[in-house]
């Protein structure tokens, strides 16, 4: 297995820069992983591809305003991308310029309407430590400044200003904590969710806070040497009971997004380790790296967006549907001028 195996060429004009006016008006590519058959549809019609009794599992994590800008004592500009909260006031973050932000460096953040401060007295963030992977540990004097100064953590390939920050959230987002939104859920509207419920589709909600691997490409030639970073997940008793019933009754479990896939398969792996086969509530750090060869334990189908080449997410989707079939489906999407990545179109893999 090589990282190059998960590469493909995407014309830059197919990278979606803005969300569509109506969430469910995006296109939907339906891939049958058994036959490789590809069908083209609209997301608003996704109910045509579902069955009464299907259990759809959504990630209700909410993206925090994780991108912060400020200045150092020297006057140099600084950018932080918050990744995860270690404890109250202490966060792991990516920083730019990372080499100049050594332990002890202090930063005054850009807060709208606040006059310029004196960094020798006033500061918002202090760098505490540098980790081996370039991540910084930073401490806030007052965490409230995150909401006052933070911006939606749009990925670097989006260059257009987002007018409405709520469009970088799912309509069902509830639990703040993600450094990037679980974008496969962007296509759902409240009315579409209600239509699916009336059609007999059951829904469950889990939480996984998206972290570093969304931003870090796989650098190693052999992806098995890539270090996957952990992400906090939680499955409450209501979701656990819904999953247990669906498995017992032989109904399909459809994961909405790769984050839901990772949560469910983490639960499935933990089930194997327990040995009793019962799904219960739980939480912890997901450390599962899904590569081709993975045996899927809970997920029967998935809804996902189109992912960056050579990424861990491309590898996960390839593990589920087969690398060749996924690459063929991506080429079909390119030929049909689908919109790619976070604000792009969707796939349903059955």
How does this structure look, described?
Helices cover 19% and strands 26% of the residues. A hairpin with a 2-residue loop joins β6 (77-87) and β7. Strands 2-1-17-16-14-3-12-13-15 form a 9-stranded mixed β-sheet. The protein has a 6-stranded antiparallel barrel with strand order 5-6-7-10-9-8. It has a two-stranded parallel ribbon with strand order 4-11. The chain contains 6 helices and 17 strands. α5 crosses α6 (323-335). The mean pLDDT is 93. The longest helix has 17 residues, at 258-274. The protein has helices spanning 144-149, 190-198, 237-249, 258-274, 312-321, 323-335; strands spanning 27-31, 38-42, 55-59, 61-63, 67-72, 77-87, 90-96, 106-109, 125-130, 136-140, 175-178, 202-208, 231-235, 253-256, 282-286, 301-305, 346-349. The protein folds into 2 domains: 3-63 and 162-349, QueA-like (3-Layer(aba) Sandwich), CATH 3.40.1780.10; 67-149, Beta Barrel (Thrombin, subunit H). It is an alpha/beta fold and 350 residues long.
Quick overview:
By secondary structure, the chain is an alpha/beta fold. The chain has 6 helices and 17 strands.
Distance between termini? 24 Å
The chain-level mean pLDDT equals 93
CATH uppermost class of the largest domain = Alpha Beta
In this structure, how is the largest beta sheet organized?
A: 9 strands, mixed
* Tally of alpha and pi helices: 6
Q: How many β-strand runs? A: 17
β-sheet strand percentage = 25-35%
Order of helices and strands: EEEEEEEEEEHEHEEHEHEEHHE
Work out the radius of gyration: 21 Å
* Shape, principal axes of CA atoms: globular
Fraction of helical residues: 10-25%
Number of domains: 2
CATH architecture of the largest domain: 3-Layer(aba) Sandwich
CATH topology of the largest domain: QueA-like
